[in-house]
Structure prediction request, 259 residues.
Amino acid sequence: MFKLKHLFESMWFGHKSISKKVYTTGLMIFSGVFVVAVVMLSVNGFAKTKTIDHVVSYETDDDDQSLNRIEETTTVAEASEESSYDTFARSNDNDTLQLEAEEAVTLAKEEEQDRVFQTATNNLEESQINLLNLKDYTALVRIVEAEATNEDLKGKILVANTVMNRVASRRFPNTIYEVVHQRTGNRAQFSPIDDGRYFRVTIKDSTVKAVEQALNGVDYSNGSLFFVSKSLASENAGNWFDDNLTFLFQHGGHHFYKF
Prediction:
């Protein structure tokens, strides 16, 4: 209080004419203002401290919530990744099973071809075996099956005879496979090549037997190089055979010709 009085006196030092009453009143007012100022500063400091504490606490809560959200996000991401991996693994398993099934079907077809080939070659003479390979044999069996599915044994042998006659002729390719797959322009010489029957047939035992006999020398063909099923061919196609080739005979559903 003494210091406040001294400060007040120094502020009003030059005013000698101020009365004692006024002086005393002014000193009281100044002291009151000073005390209020000190109190306000203290309150403001406390309020700032509380605000800072609140901000720190709020930021800490935010950090905790952010950490929780990060952990939740990480957990969700991990779960999603595990789910994606499971889906991928199941997809791979399905693809593997499908591939294995396709390989099994392919293997079964190859084994069937091997069985048919082995059955035939076991019954062939040595000279005939040396002239035959799997590619040619498969082509011959397939074309006989496709062209003469509903024919009797002789009808199937006749188709095999005709193919083999072409191999022996200088007018045609010199292997069974090439004869069967020969094309003239955009058309195959044998219609089952064009319509796909050749590739879809199931080989019957009677067809295997017919091919075996033809390869062993059974020949009813009289040198035929062509045959046509007139019930299935167009009228123009049927007429072409009659007009341009020499008719030999008819057996079953086929008419046979040569040059």
